[in-house]
Amino acid sequence: MKKLFYTLMVLPLLATLSACSDSDNDLPEVDMQVTISGGVQNQDDNKIYVEQGTPLVVESITAVPRNGKKTTIGLTTYYLNGLPQYQTVTVPFSCTLSTDALAVGEYSFQIKSAVYQVDKSAAFVLMSYDLVVEEPEQDTPATYGRSIVTPDTQQVAEQ
């Protein structure tokens, strides 16, 4: 009789756990919009180019919902070659990456943002870019305007 009683007590718990696991796959449906200045993204190879000594400024990050549901961004972390460089929770999630100490060459630049959307699981979006630091031109330093950059990859995963 005790076994039957314990089994009946555990069944609702198992049903609840299985219902939770189904909702875990319900990730936010967003496209991330990253606005930069100080560098430019080449449309041919999708790399961001910046002159050595010119800071790369991420002016803002915005989550654009694909399904019309209200969406917001949380903690955002910037990485250079896999190492965290800066974190922020403040809108517009901006960051200035100094290139003074970077050698001329290619780097991995990533942005990881927590994303929250109505009726969806909490998640994070990882945006990856190839960043190329170029030798500065002596005669005319580059002046890049503001632009929206497209990540090489954008992955959404559960938190």
Describe the protein's architecture and organization:
This protein is mainly beta and 159 residues long. It is 14% helix and 48% strand. The chain has one helix and eleven strands; from the N terminus they run αβββββββββββ. The protein has one helix at residues 2-23; strands spanning 30-37, 40-41, 48-51, 56-65, 71-80, 83-88, 95-97, 105-117, 123-134, 147-149, 153-158. The strands form two sheets. Strands 2, 3, 5, 6, 8, 9 and 11 form a seven-stranded mixed sheet that branches. Strand 5 and strand 6 (83-88) form a beta hairpin. The longest helix has 22 residues, at 2-23. The relative contact order is 0.25. The mean pLDDT is 83.
Secondary-structure blueprint:
Elements (H helix, E strand, L loop, with lengths): L1 H22 L6 E8 L2 E2 L6 E4 L4 E10 L5 E10 L2 E6 L6 E3 L7 E13 L5 E12 L12 E3 L3 E6 L1
Parallel strand pairs: 3-9
Antiparallel strand pairs: 1-4, 1-10, 2-3, 4-7, 5-6, 5-8, 8-9, 9-11
Features:
single chain; 159 residues; 1 helix; 14% helix; 48% strand
Number of E-state strands: 11
Q: How much helix is in the residues?
A: 10-25%
Given helix and strand content, the structural type is mainly beta
What is the global morphology? Answer: elongated
**What is the number of helices?**
1
- Percentage of β-strand residues: over 45%
For the termini, the CA-CA separation is: 42 Å
**What is the typical, i.e. mean, pLDDT?**
83
Rg of Cα set: 21 Å
Q: Low-confidence segments, ≥5 residues, pLDDT <50?
A: none
State the order of secondary-structure elements, H for helix, E for strand: HEEEEEEEEEEE
* Biggest sheet overview: 7 strands, mixed
